[in-house]
Amino acid sequence: MLNFKERAEKKKILSKQFLGGFLIILSLGIVFTAIQMFRETAWQQTAATVSKATIEEPSDSEKNYRLFLTYSYQIAGKRYTARSCKSQSADKAHLEAEIKDLYQPGAQLNVYFDPSEPENSSVNKSSSPLALAYLVLAGLAGSRGIRLIKLKYKPKDEIPPEDY
User: Which of 48, 66, 85, 86 is the most exposed place for a label (fewest CB within 10 A)?
Assistant: First the structure.
């Protein structure tokens, strides 16, 4: 039977194993994001027309306002409409000035689209170095998670009583 100290040690190891599982799941999500970013680096550029620009208020957990653009573009004779976040800032006036100067309805801008699925587009292109950094982060989180999961409870050896 385990004494109080041994039970506490076993519970501590179980919580570390749980954290390890969480880190592994997190690293898989990061890998998925990095793969998507690598795919987006191959997206092609095309001209689009802004139909609407809106600023979203920050939520309770965020500090920045976000500027979203609704735009339309044409690929192989088919017209697509999309909405994408162009930028964010803690200064709402800065984003309002951006809209006034650059993103009035009818303004032209370059967007990036997935050649295999032209309905997928973005006003910002992903970068390979950032995707590579995500993969490094995923590797670190995953390896740490595996090490934590492998932890095992090892009871302390008791010294047998001496016979006199």
Answer: 85
